[in-house]
Each structure stands twice: as structure tokens, then as C-alpha cells.
Amino acid sequence: MEHGSSIEINTEWDIVAARQLGRNEAKETGFGTVDQARITTAISELARNIYLYAGKGVIKIEPVRAGQRAGLIITASDEGPGITDLQKVMEDGFTTSGGLGAGMPGVKRLMDDFRVETEVGIGTTITATKWLH
Amino acid sequence: MKMRIPILKLKDTLIVSIQVELDDQTALQFQEDLLDQLHKTSARGVVIDLTPIDFIDSFIAKVLGDVIHMTSLMGAKVVITGIQPSVAITLIELGIRLENVKTALDLENGLEKLTRELEA
């Protein structure tokens, strides 16, 4: 059942492709309609952040299993500028794009686990997991 | 790849049913088309039905919010209808508040609401 897939983000159209892929994976994993919407929306935001801030990157969507739990891991990675002030980025309402993205706190609320690794000048990797309940 | 969202006119109201997943370009094109139609037809109200839409991200929300404000700048009123439970939940969790937006459960209720708004 390890069927995960990944998609390169280079253009606006890739954002649409990434969320369609995410919706399909979420459906296949057995998520209900609300969680499907959460996952699709989170992917859309993460893909848009890559497009806006790094220009290009990759979204990976993989099923996970941990003991009795099953879920979906979304990994968004880029080799962009990195995040200078992570604490600020995680505050509600903080934006450097004039309000285009809902920001990271929103994505964090949509998902169950959320981790950011970032280094200025090297890039950013965000890992977000949703578990089946 | 560009799609156009059809805009229907019924008396002095424009009716839009968004039935496809909106990509950025289609959303922006819709914004322009709707304002254009308002100008051409002198419609006084707009109902935008979102029943088939199963998720709205921050970009689409921003375009929708903008189009509502632009429409009111032009002197017309907008009612949004058919927001699904999953869409309502994800919008709020995402932290997006479509403030001062008139909404109704479905198209029928939306048209009634709009008529009352226009008479007020």
C-alpha cells in the first residue's frame, strides 16, 4: 500500500495538480470529506508558499503507518531563501506577501503534526501529518 | 487551459454557479468577467453559488472577498450560497474570516435574501 507520490512545483498549475493528487491520496487512505478538505487545503497553501517564496520545490504525499495508526504525510521542500524569523512566521496574521497565503499557523491547525526545518540560504522543509481517527 | 465561469442574468440579478475547481487564473478571470457583466447589464445584485466546491484555499478566499468588495464599490449586492460544511470548517481553521459577507444555505434562499436586501 506504499503508493506515495510527489510533484514538482514550478508554476501555478502545479499547485492545482498537487492538491488534486492530495485529495486522491486522502480519499484512498480513507479520510472523510472534512479531512479530505483539510489535507487538500494544507497542500494548496504549502505549494503556494513554495511558488511564492522559493520559486520551485517539491511536494511529497505519502501514506504512513505507526502502530495502529494510519495517516498521510505531506512534505514540502524547497531550496529557497529559508525563513529568517520562524517564530514570527508562526504567528497568526504575519505575512510578507501582502496576505496572499493564510500562513503557516493555518496549515498547522488543519493538520495533526507539523514540523518546520529551515536554514537561511539553504531552504525549507515542512512536514505535516494527518492521522485517521 | 484557461476556463471561463458562466455568468447568467435573471431580471436585475447575475447568477454564478462555480462548478469547477478554481485555479488562480480562472479565479482572476472570473473577477474581471463578473465586474464587466455588472457594468454592461446594470444588474443590482449577484448570487454566487459554491455548492459543488469542496475546498477553498486562502487564494480563492482572497479573490472571493475582493470580488465582493469590488461589487459593492460598483453599487451592487452579493450573496454567497451553498458553502459546504467541509469548506466552512477549513476556512475557519485556516484563519480566514470572510467578514461582512452575506450568505445563504442555498441558491433559492440566496435569491430571496438578495431580493429583501435590494428592497430594503
Automatic annotation (TrEMBL), chain A:
Organism per entry: Sporosarcina newyorkensis
Gene Ontology MF term list: kinase activity
Pfam family, one: HATPase_c
CDD domains given in the database record: HATPase_RsbT-like (cd16934)
Protein name: Serine/threonine-protein kinase RsbT
InterPro entries the UniProt entry points to: HATPase_C_sf, HATPase_dom
Keywords: Kinase, Transferase
Domain named Histidine kinase/HSP90-like ATPase: residues: 34-133
Automatic annotation (TrEMBL), chain B:
InterPro entries in the record: Bact_StressResp_Reg (IPR051932), STAS_dom (IPR002645), STAS_dom_sf (IPR036513)
Domain STAS intervals: 3-114
Protein name: Anti-sigma factor B antagonist
Residues making up the signal peptide according to the UniProt record: none
Coiled coil: none
